[in-house]
Structures are given as structure tokens and as C-alpha cells.
Amino acid sequence: MTSLTLVAALALSACSTTSPDVIQRGDAQRLSQVQDATVLSSRPVVVDGSQSGVGAVAGGVTGAIAGSSVGGRREGQVVGVLGAVAGAVIGNAIERSTTREDALEITVQLRNGERRSIVQAKGAESFNAGDPVILTTTGGKTRVTRAPAVVPAAPAPTNG
């Protein structure tokens, strides 16, 4: 039963994302700082997968259980240890590969002339040099989105 719990935890950890199109529950209904900027460049990058150890533990437990059922008592112990080691290596590799993300490194220039670089997972939007964008910062994390079109305010009516 323990190995099933660990495998489930690994599967759930693989579902986490840094997508700019997904807002974390804790960031909902929080006031965010918004800055106007212009894209200088955008390039594809890969965010390396995580290695929390959950994959190694889940793989090790699964490998040990599978290996210990082989042969007699002595062979089962030896194969169980080998299975645990092999399972841990495989589980770690699976965790790392399932948590890798295609991302963008977006370099922007703020209105005050300062430049910033933000790496975020690829979302629905693409960014080209010269595009107006907004940087939204919440809880120390910043995401880049296209700036909404600005509609000029209608002139106030005059009494005359």
C-alpha cells in the first residue's frame, strides 16, 4: 500500500505547472503590481525537471517489492536490493523528465528604461520584439502577458 501512495504522490507532483495561464489558488484575489513594458526579445528555453526524491523513493519501494518475490529467500533478498536500486534510479529519471517544461525567456524594457528578463512556461501567447506587454507580480512571482488595447477616454461633456 505504501508504494501505491508514493506512486500517486509522484503522479500528482508531475501535474504542477508554471504556466502563465494557470493562477495558483493562493494568488487569487490578491492585489498584484502591474508594470508596462516592451518586449526586446523572446527565446525558447527548457526549465529543468525537479528531483524531490519522491520518484526515487517510489521506484525504490516498487523495485524492492518486485525483486523480493523472485526465487527463494536468499535470492529474493539480493534481487530485492538490486530492484530497489534500479527502481530508485528509474523513478528519479521519470520524475525529472515529467517535471521538465518548455518555457520562454522574455527580455523586456520598462518605461523607465530598465531591462528585465523573465522565464515562464509557454502559454497561449507568443511574444515578438516590440510587443507591448504587462508584467504582473504577485507574491514575488512575475508573469508576462500581452498588454490590453488602451481605449482613449471619451471627452467629458461640456455645458455651454
Automatic annotation (TrEMBL):
Stored InterPro entries: Gly_zipper_2TM_dom
Domain Glycine zipper 2TM: 55-95
Pfam families in UniProt: Rick_17kDa_Anti
Protein name (Swiss-Prot/TrEMBL): Glycine zipper 2TM domain-containing protein
Protein's organism: Pelomonas lactea
